[in-house]
Design goal:
Blueprint (H helix, E strand, L loop, with lengths): L10 H26 L1
Keywords: Membrane, Transmembrane, Transmembrane helix
């Protein structure tokens, strides 16, 4: 078991997190608008 392998980011892993990032942005942006406004 090589621990360094866990630090390597594969394209598939990045694609899996893109929907989560977009969802987080959609949720956070309205909150920021309400907080600032």
């Amino acid at each position: 078991m090589n621990k360094m392998n866990k630090k390597v980011f594969h394209i598939g892993d990045v694609l899996k997190y893109i929907p989560l990032v977009l969802a987080a942005i959609v949720v956070v942006l309205p909150l920021l608008v309400v907080f600032i406004g």
